[in-house]
Amino acid sequence: MGRRKRRTDALRGELLAVAAGLLASGGSGAVTTRAVASGAGSSQAAVNELFGGKAGLARALFAEGFARLAAELRALESTGDPEADVLELAMAVRSFARRSPHLYEVMFSRPFAEFRPGPQDARAAEEIYGLVLGRVTVLLGPDRAEGTAKDAAIGLFATVQGLVAHEASGLLGSGPESADRRFRFVLTAALRGLAAASTTAPERPDASSRNRHRPETT
After folding, report:
1. Is 87 helix (H, G, I), strand (E, B) or coil?
2. Does 59 score more than 60 pLDDT?
3. What is the pLDDT of residue 35?
């Protein structure tokens, strides 16, 4: 049987599934247009036409990773405890990273030399950011200072990413129990610190204060 020549959304889905499988089993180095085409019983020409080559495959995997993680986060139900809800979300991100380390790497690192996310690719992460921001906003409450919910959401996700990286490197603990304890301890402390800090607006000098420190001119 010859290679299929059709260029359809179904074929694109098959090729992406093969690419994701190769990524999961062999890392970014296993994802080539030849291997993806062979795995789907298609051709490199089809891969190039549907994805624009390896860079396009990497971009599709990047978007696929965020879509999968967003689906998992969307499925989390609220417990009624804002702190527990944000912690649950963070732990779900950790679980995703542990189950799909190579896909997580594509999302938050740059393992493909052919692909560097641009502004247009940032849309892939928008839903996840919205989910994090929503739960953080509830945690901080109505008395939060302006802009602190966004600051806290970005800081929280950066903290989660750092912890995930340390755990992947074996630096978070000598065993799963100690790693889990430290992960939860650091996140809980960060959440409580962010909640406390958000109620205090940063001081800004008024006009008279600025004038007092302005050098005199002649």
Report:
1. helix
2. yes
3. 98
Q: Model-level pTM? A: 0.86
| CATH architecture of the domain covering 63-201 | Orthogonal Bundle (1.10)
- Averaged over 153-172, what is the pLDDT? 95
The CA distances from residue 1 to 4, 19, 41, 42, 49, in Å, are 9, 22, 10, 11, 21
CA 86/CA 147 separation, integer angstroms:
18
Quote the mean pLDDT of the chain.
90
Residue 193, token pair as written in the block? 């610190």
Question: What's the Rg (C-alpha) of the chain?
Answer: 23
Class of domain 6-52: mainly alpha
- How many Å apart are CA 62 and CA 59, to the nearest integer? 5
Q: Phi/psi at 186 (nearest 5 deg)? A: -65, -45
Which residue ranges make up each domain of the chain?
A: 6-52, 63-201
